[in-house]
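In the current project phase, we have settled on a layout for protein records. A sample record is reproduced below.
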Amino acid sequence: MAHLHYIFTHHTTNPKPRTPSETMSILPNGVYLIRNGNNVASNFPATGTHPPFITAISFAGMSGPYSQWMVKHVDQGAYSITNLGSGFKAFVKDEEKGASVDGNSDKGVHFAIEPAGMNEYTIKTVDRDLDWTVNEEQPEFIRVFLEPSGKGVSQHFLFQFLRPFED
């Protein structure tokens, strides 16, 4: 019986950031849990009547469709990241330090996914050297922001493969 999940491993000895054109597709298209430590990335749908809707991407010990992400290689090392439960795409309004990483009902932003060693990856903006960074200052609602590289485990993510996705 095939395993329902497996973890992709890729080690690098070159800590220098790479541009998307230097990065090949390192994760196959599929549905993943995105983990940081014991927490899993989640996104919930918004309430209201006037889209676009934007809701926070948070990290908690959750499961179910709101913690499952469709990761799709789109171009030269860039990926779209879409939450299966909400249908929202990973998005930043501005690619700048401190910007919140959210789910957007209408449009998403492509991100680079690069090896960080030890079965972990960083998720970065394509045009700037800014990484998804888990901010645990409010443990009841752990958010994701963009910060410069080099902040250690708060910027390292494990992609746990669940299944292929259907186009």
